[in-house]
Amino acid sequence: MNKELKGSIPTDSEVILGILNNSESVLKRLYVAYFPMVLQLIINNNGSPDDAKDIYQEAIIILYNKIKAGDFELSSKLKTFIYSVCRRLWLKRLSQMSRYSGDIKDFQDYSPVEDEVERQNDMDMQFSKMEAALRLLGEPCKTIMEDFYIHNRSMQEICERFGYTNADNAKTQKYKCLQRLKKLFFHQK
Amino acid sequence: MNDGKLLEEIERYLNGEMSPEERKQFELLRKGDTAINTKIAEHQEFVKLLKQYSDRLALEGRLDAIHDEIDVHTLTEELMVHPSWVVRLWRNHHSKISVAASIAIFAILCTLFVTGNLSNQESKYIQLRGEVVRLKQKTDRLNQTVAQGNRPVKNTLERFSGTGFAITSNGLLVTNYHVVSENDSVYVQNAAGKSFKAKVLYTQPENDIAILKITDTSFRNLPPIPYTIKKAESDLAESVYTYGYPQESGTYGYGKVTSANGLNGDSLDYQISIPINPGNSGGPLMDDKGNVIGIVQAKQTQLEGVHFAVKSSYLLSAIDSLDKKVNLNTKNTLANLTPVQQLKKLKNYVFMVKVYDK
Prior knowledge:
The complex is a heterodimer.
Chain A: H1 2-6, H2 12-20, H3 24-43, H4 49-69, H5 78-96, H6 114-137, H7 141-150, H8 155-162, H9 167-186
Chain B: H1 3-15, H2 20-32, H3 34-68, H4 72-79, H5 85-115, H6 121-148, H7 156-160, E1 161-166, E2 172-176, H8 177-180, E3 185-189, E4 195-204, E5 209-214, E6 228-229, E7 239-244, E8 251-259, E9 269-272, E10 284-287, E11 291-297, E12 307-311, H9 312-320, H10 339-346, E13 350-356
Parallel strand pairs in B: 6-11
Antiparallel strand pairs in B: 1-2, 1-13, 2-5, 3-4, 3-13, 4-5, 7-8, 7-10, 8-9, 9-12, 10-11, 11-12
Helix pairs in contact in B: 2-3
């Protein structure tokens, strides 16, 4: 399966269009196409395959968000962009683990991508803050929040799901949950 | 309007669930109240964050699903740059290897230090040599004292007791000078246990020879002396024996002449292999034909199994230098006897010499 997928590296514009249209197959082809490159970078620079997966997925998410946000300008090849982001992320990870020995073995050309990585860093922080806040929120609030704000379920549905006697009770509950979630989110260190 | 109600309104407004009139009213409210305006913005922002969070969660789920379809293991094998295993080992473990090496070096140094191998082997050898040299000097000094012979190592036994043998039947005895030196009075005791007073007639300290004369009135002349004193020097490996009084009863000792010279080439002495004790001093050294070839000198040395006897030629010259002419026996009656018979006769002419200090 790998081989046949490898054979179909999507073009850069294909990828951009595909992501904008939420195409699952383009995402898959993109992922499969460039993973070996990143794997090669990581495992030959003191990393494990799991490290490679983490770094690569983070880079894909950066690319994905950039495209979705509409501010992705294809100044260099997509391949170079992904490689550069992964390289940057891995260097950061290495120095965090104090395993960085001062030189990294490169397999591709790369361009400076510090800005992208920094921006992603902020988003990562918010992501983990939200994750922690939701975890602390606990059930049933967490599910109510997810149902209403993420899955866009109506209050009526939620009311039935949780067995509230009337919609007003559910609304009050939802309001309390939201207030708590906000508090947890904004008051985290 | 309480906060819960307001939130609901905001949500409805943002989601576009309001009827046109409601919407109009709410927008009016919004315009007039900045607090509500910020609330709306805040809420919008927060909901966006929640959405981003869920989007990302979903995306990660999708990526994980894709990832699971990739044969990472095979790819890893293919893509791993394989430097030589030494390089890889070093690259992955250089810190550990360094620590291990340091510990190993430290341990070796400690071991060397503790076992003393770190210090110079050479100096140890020199020390050992020094020790040997010191020992040698000590021995030399000792040997010198002994060789000069006048005052051998003092020993109570030696000092008070020795052996002497008759050279004439009228009571002239020969012993070592060191036996009778520093005496107050000298007694001799024959094989029968009878004591006679004697006096020192003549001494030759340089040759360790003393001639005594029995002065006791109870002394009767001895039968004719059965042995002769040999003029010529004896040969090496000649069988010799002695009889003396290292203890209360007379003791026979048997051996060979092992050297024509004594300590440090001293030509005064023979070196003999007879086991000898201090009391043997002054005893006759006989060859197996019954000739006196020397006077046993029971000197103690640190050398094992090495003993000395003054050569008979010196004895003869000492006898010659006596004031009175001495007629020595010239007929050897022991020559054809067995050692047992020789000794039976000989022991009557050998005396224990007792010296008393006051």
